[in-house]
Amino acid sequence: MCICVNCRHVHNCVTYHLIQKQHNYRYNKKIISNYFIPKEALINININTNHTNKNIFFDWDLIECLSFVEIPGYWIT
Q1: Which range of residues forms the domain containing residue 71?
Q2: I want to staple 4 with a disulfide (CB 3.0 to 4.6 A). Which of 14, 16, 25, 42 is the partner?
Q3: Within a domain: residue 16?
Q4: Separation between Cα atoms, residue 25 and residue 54, nearest integer Å
Q5: Which long-range contacts (CB under 8 A, 24 or more apart) does 68-74 make?
């Protein structure tokens, strides 16, 4: 699970923005003038296959970040 959803930097973090793009998520496209660049972010990519129709899916999760500051549920605001 991506830890970004409970981080105070979720709304302007470049790493979270990248993960949203990789998930083809329709994120808010408002222009953010003060992007936050986290320190030592570790992304885990799981590769899942569906043998029935031969599809490959990638699941991107940020699992560690030195800039993480916990505020549970902050992404909802």
Answers
A1: 3-26+36-76
A2: 16
A3: yes
A4: 22
A5: 68/3, 68/7, 68/9, 68/38, 69/7, 69/8, 69/9, 70/6, 70/7, 70/8, 71/6, 71/7, 71/8, 72/6, 73/5, 73/6, 74/5, 74/6, 74/7, 74/8, 74/10, 74/11
Number of domains in the chain: 1
Residue 57 lies in a domain: yes
**Residues 27-73: tens digit of each pLDDT:** 566 656 688 999 999 999 999 998 888 889 899 999 999 999 999 87
Beta strands in 18-76 (DSSP E): 42-50, 55-64
